[in-house]
Structures are given as C-alpha cells and as structure tokens.
Amino acid sequence: MTASPAGSASAQPRTFLPPEMLPRDGRFGSGPSKVRPEQVEALTRLATTWLGTSHRQAPVRAAVGELREGLARFFALPDGYEVVLGNGGASAFWDIASLCLVRERSQHVVIGEFSAKFAAATSAAPFLAEPDVRRAEPGHATSPHAVTDVDAYAWPHNETSTGVMLPVERVGAGDQLVLVDGTSAAGGTRLDPSQVDAYYFAPQKSFAADGGLWFALLSPAAIERVERLRGSRWVPAILDLHAAIENSRKDQTLNTPALATIALMREQVRWLNERGGQEWAAARCAQSTGIVYDWARAHELATPFVAEESARSTVVATIDFDERVDAAALAATLRAHGVVDLEPYRKLGRNQLRVGVFPAVEPDDVRALTACIDAVLAEGSVLVR
Hints:
Layout: H1 37-44, H2 58-75, E1 82-87, H3 90-100, E2 106-110, H4 113-124, E3 132-135, E4 152-156, E5 158-159, E6 164-165, E7 177-181, E8 198-201, E9 213-218, H5 220-229, H6 241-248, H7 259-274, H8 277-298, E10 302-304, E11 316-321, H9 327-336, E12 352-356, H10 363-379
Parallel strand pairs: 2-3, 2-4, 4-7, 7-8
Antiparallel strand pairs: 1-9, 5-6, 8-9, 10-11, 11-12
C-alpha cells in the first residue's frame, strides 16, 4: 500500500497528545539527524575565535587534526589506515571512487536507492567496464560474491532508504578493494575497519553535524590504488582523491570547508569517545531500534518492514502499517506535535514510518514515541474508514 499523498483529507493532523506524553526531543530523522544542544553551545563559544577565519591557519587545522584523531580512535584504525576528508557529501564519493579507486570494473550490491546510485556512477563512467550488479528487492538483503574480473567490491553498510543493514566482511583476494558506504551506519554500529579499504560517510547522521563534507577511512591498499591510477585518466580537482589525501595530511581540505560542520562534528566525536566510543554508541542505537522493533512485533497494525531479523538496521528502523492505517496521516499528526521526520523514503512509496535513532537520540524518547503512536492509533483519527 502506498502512502497517502501529502495534503489529502486523511493526512490532516489532529492535535490531542498531551505534552507530558511527548518525547523531550522529537527529532527522529534519518538524516539530517538530531543535533545535541550542547554541540550548538560549543559552536557559539567559537563565534569570536576561529569561525569566519582561514581554514589553512593553525586554529582551524588543529580542530581538523583533533577530529581526524578522534575518528581514528573511535574506529580503532589499524596501522597504516588514514582518515581523509574532502568537500562535498558522501554522494560525491561515488564519483571520486569511480575516478580514483576503481581500476577497470566494480561489483555492486544494490538493495535500495543509495546503493543503486554508486552502481549508476560506475556504469556511466566511459573509462570503466559495465559493473557486475547484485540486486535485491527493497527490504531484502543480498551479498557480494568473489569473482576474478572485478577490482573493487562496493556495498552499503546500511541502506538508509529501506533500513537494511549488511555485514562488512572482506571479500575477494589479491589487490581487489572493498569499498563500503557507511553514511548512515558509521558511528552507530560496529565496524572492524580491517575488513574494508575505503569506508566513507557524511557527518549528518551519527556524527550529528551538517552536510557538505565527506570522510573516508582508507587502507594502505586503497592509498596505493590511488597512487597507481593517478595520471591515468583526467580527474577534476574537486574529485581528486590524491589531492584530498595530501590535504588531509595537512589537516585541511582543497577548498574552504564549512567550519561550523567541523566544529559540530568534533564536539560529537568527543562526546562519543568520552562515553565508550564505538561499543557504547552501537549498544545505544541497538537498544533504541530494539524498542521500535519490539513495539512493532507486538502491535496488530504494525510490522518491521525488513522481514529478516539479521538484516534489520540498528540505526534506522522502518515499520510498515496495516492498510487500515494511514501512515501519512499518522506522521502528520506527530509532526503537528513536534515529533518530526518520520516519513518513509519518498521513492519507496510505502505505508510506513522510518525512525532514525542515531546516538544523539535518547532511548527514553524512543519509548515515548511508541507511546504517542499507540495513542494516535487508539484515538482512531488516522484509521481508514
């Protein structure tokens, strides 16, 4: 069943939830995600120091260096791995990888909207062979398969559009690279970085900042591939991974970055590391999605969209509703009360809610969310008559 179109009569919200029932913070978006007030307070303290100053001078470069070191600590990077950053979001990294990491042919696991975009990028590249694409229907998982005629395997750690999570385990042999899109998973679930050569992500999910930058954890093999391909094809400067590596080693980017994004992310990485790093964050997110999945399994009108339990995301929970429920009206009612960004991915077109529970989200607020959904369903205004 597809969601009701916005503006339909059934999607008009009714206000009746008492304030004491609501989450203390009603932001449950799958990206951009909740930004903690403490991060914003930290940002304001920079208003007259290095905000609005050169990103090539010591104060800002020191902040970038601290952020890179904090990420290396958070992910427990093996020797030789480097934290690299650059201008543009994670979407830009699909083109960067097509230009600077895929030598001749890639294999892609496509399980939703975002994983399909990287496959489309390598397919469109005139200097690469047609990629080997392994597909599964939205809500289902599949795996990469070792073959001899590809030099890079690519898949998403977490498909944000569907709430399917895939394991990150090395596949292939020799100089075949593993490239994993960690955009909505990074920082909210466990990762063994030794299993991947390029793990890339943007800062607006678990790291609770704005977009506009990409980060990548690169192995020595990935860096060597970049060096070997350098000069073999034309690469725009903004997409040149070699330039990004060289600039990152100087704690800067090719072009001016959003300094506020760096400040917000640095504060979030500090906060995560102080509380136990990756293990703490992964456990917290798993607790929150567990609350949502347990609620859905117990409710007669809801069910987890991802049927295979082992493939369910621990950071983005997608919940389908019975055809008797107008999920768009449910989301509109919640939004009218300040509980926001629960709508499903627009192109998926399902009668569902999508709940982002990155580390900044309090598990108690997730419990309050399910109580609010119960109250709206019990009241009956979002039921199809």
